[in-house]
Amino acid sequence: MRRGAHCCLAGALAFALISCGGGGDSSGGGGGTPAPTATPTPTPTSGGRLFVDPLQRSLTVGDVQRVIAQAVGEAQSRSLPATIAVVDRVGNVLGVFAMTGSPANTRISRRTIAGRAAAGEEVGLQGVEVPTAAAAIAKAVTGAYLSSSGNAFSTRTASQIVQEHFPPAPTTVGLESGPLFGVQFSQLPCSDLSARMSDGMIGPQRSPLGLAADPGGFPLYKDGVVVGGIGVAGDGDYGFDPDTLDLDRDAEEFAALAGTQGFTPPREIEADRIPVDGTSLRFRDAAADELGPLQGSFGAVNGPAGALVAVFGYNDGTIRAGTAYGTAASGIRRSTSAEFASEDAYVLVDGAGTPRFPIRAGTDAASVANPLTVAEVRAVLEEAFAVLGRSRAQIRRPLDSRMQASISMVDTHGAILGVVRSPDGPIFGTDVSLQKARTAAFFSNRVAAAQMQAAGGAVAGYVQRVRSFLGDANALTGTFAFADRSGGNLSRPYFPDGEVGDVAGPLSVERPGQFSPFMTGLQTDLILPNLVQHLGFVISGGASADTPRGCTQLPDAPGGGKRIGNGIQIFPGSVPIYRGDELVGGIGVSGDGIDQDDMVSFLGLHNAGQRVGGIGNARVDIRADRIVVSVNGRNVRLRYVNCPFAPFLDDPRQNVCEGL
């Protein structure tokens, strides 16, 4: 979407929240609530199952009231009329409270990193006004979805890992982009994986704005187990933190932190205890000892300070209890032996407890000679899960915990052939692993260019940009195999990634200075119409149609359905699947370090090929790392996958992917 289009949207979005009364009273602790002493349980190292199931804990109605009351009390003390949202671990919106005077609308930040975009050059979602309640919900979902029993991440953490340099700061220009660059465009309202309130509240639920990078969102914990998230929005700006070297005095973050008191994560798993590439992540700038006395009574704020509000498609204006993750009611439960070989695996289920994505054969006989069989799909998922279970985690505490993630597999039409998870994988990885699998299969497909050209508009223009950039008139016609790391190289605002210059990747913004977390390039352009339509649906109370399932304006695959039905992803963790030289599908992994995700997809597919024969990774000579790009007089090679050194807990080998 170009500037004229999004300005029209900004003018069209006028939001009215339906005020509701109700709710009982819940008294809850005073100021200075101590942090819990519970610690994450190390995973077993020998015998029996490899993983421990998370404790089944959930937020009660009283808990939600207490969280809201505490946040409202702190917001009042800081003169911040705000909207507070609380969700459970799988994204069900448990309550939304709008304080008197809280702005109905919030503007998506026009800021760009270091101010490099000139006035009037804003693209993508920059400058768009959205419902404040939608911003609060997105923040709460982010805190819940990015966290687990082994890591607690906030929206400030998210801000740090999605920007063009990591860590983001004026003095770090020239470093590579954030490890989860692009993850903000996941959990989208158009996703065909993420559930909707009309589905009977079976998670994982969608988010109205994807994942948030605006401080003011935290996870909520009970007994060391993540049970949900809180989001606070009220300053009128939905942005990100471009400088992690200073300490912000963000009233939204202080209010959200107050809401977490009594529901904080164990200190040792907070993001600042977890380093990535030698840099500690950021959890919060606000400190608990700077909070005012906690307001523990919901009755004291419900009415005098504001009221519960309905957000169409997300909450009916009441407070409800959360569901316990791991139960059928949460939409994710432990698999049976008939569903998946490993007793450690978890699967997504519907309201009746039936698996939503059981293992099945490829559906793309109209496009490939020999689609994937059930036995082949099962072998790939089982072998990938086995690699996952042996791998040392990158983002979890304590040290030497096992990796936890989600694994998805698709055919060349984007049809889901199976989704499995480890017990405590962060929820965000479910949708993202599917995005990754579909992205690898799409960009490796011979129809990629034709599909993008058929979409027209801004999307069509990326085809010629890629062809000119690579010097290949046949690019995006299946001549090369693209992993997400490869497509991600082409999606960075600076090419090569980490070198500041005047060359942008051809799937990114046209000029590096235009980049914003709210405009990454093709990834954003593909789903902007869906986001616009969904926000209109929320604002109108359902009078206008919701976005259909299946993101993007690309044509349907034969037989219906979108090849990239939940958007694309542009950070590593996937590979395409081949039978000889014929593309037959894709596998995606998400939930831990990006190198671990890469390894599980690449090595899992290789091992499955060794087991069943006939399928495997792309031949070396057609992998995208054979592509060399001339940039300012020198040659730069694309990347394919990057496996971590010495990744296994049960094997001292260092280069486990070497020579494959």
Automatic annotation (TrEMBL):
Record InterPro entries: GlcG_carb_metab_protein (IPR052517), PduO/GlcC-like (IPR005624), PduO/GlcC-like_sf (IPR038084)
Keyword terms, alphabetized: Signal
Pfam families for the chain: HbpS-like
Keyword Signal: yes
PROSITE patterns per record: PROKAR_LIPOPROTEIN
Region annotation Disordered: where it falls in the sequence: 26-48
Signal peptide positions on this chain: 1-21
Keyword Lipoprotein: no
TM annotation in the entry: none
Classification via PANTHER family: PROTEIN GLCG (PTHR34309:SF1), SLR1406 PROTEIN (PTHR34309)
Name recorded for this polypeptide: Heme-binding protein
